Amino acid sequence: MKDITVLDVLHLPIMANAELKAGQNGLSNIVSYVNVLDNYYDETDSESTPVNYGQNLYLTSMAYGVDNEKYINVLIRHFIDMKVSALFIIDEYLDELPESAYELANTHKLPIIFIDSSTPYALIISSIMELKLSYHESELHENLIHELVSSQCKEERKLEIIPLLNKNFHSYIRAFYCVNTDLSSNKITAISNEVYLLNKIRENKFALGCHYKKGMLIIRSYHTAANISSCEDEIQFIRRMLPNAVIGISELLPLKQLDEVIVQASMASLSGAHDINGTVYFRDIGLSKLLVKLLSNPLLEDYFNELYSPIAEHDKKYHSNLIETMTAFIECDLDHVKTGKLLHIHVNTVRYRLNKIRELIPYGRSSLDFTQTLYFLYKIMKMKALT
Question: Based on C-alpha coordinates, what's the Rg of the chain?
Fold first, then answer.
């Protein structure tokens, strides 16, 4: 089961006004339990407080710390010794701790977060427990989906899995596979708002949302296939919560082809063929339909290395920016002038660098062969960055 972290908790809607005061480097701490400590802690009395602190997120008002820096530091040290995940302080009595307490927390990676006193303990605890249940449900669904799309999965088993994922699915379905990506570098980044997204999708009993591979899979179902050509509402829904996501979108197919829409959406998202907004439809990925399927094939990997390695090694040795120039050339539709303007270099420098690549790699005989080889290399580079 996926571990819940302090950062996950901070992304809950109930934490919208929470303020992180210290322990920024401890946001990846795992939260296994939630506990409350509002009684007086006496370091000389082992019975004055529970000892099951490990991986606990603690809620407290720190009432006994008012005008008592020594008590606060003693309690912070005790939390650190017991490896507490994080300390959430309701600001009823305090809205700041002494700098000495923050220094301790920062040194030992103990997040200290202040919460508005109007937020009930019970609501915080229930929200965190719902989050754990949501992650558990998502993990179960992900396991079923991996089985569903497996080449070994029989048709009768597929029909068994579909209602296990959601018994309320309508007759037609479409999948959206979202990988959070830095579009400037085409690198996968962490999905920070997945908690809220999962919970929002759960509100629609005809849909499904779960983790899948390195991203999030969303499946929407519809009564009919008529007049459902646009996905704009769904795209905007996802974009509000995952503004940096590459969204791969499948065709609209009958429910019995659920495995196919999942594969289509995943292939589209990982194809590297997304538009400037990070959206890509399976129907538009062209050659990438084949390349995505071959991406794990050793023969394709060997061919990629045969093309990429000489260029990368030349760049490393001479700082020649050949990879950068090739990428810009493809993205500028093979226009030498546009490429030069984009890279702020003379057009003759663009031609020189492309000719240097021509000398380094096997590409065939003609200029068309060379251009096709560059495009092929570019496509694989984009896909490898997303897998």
Answer: 27
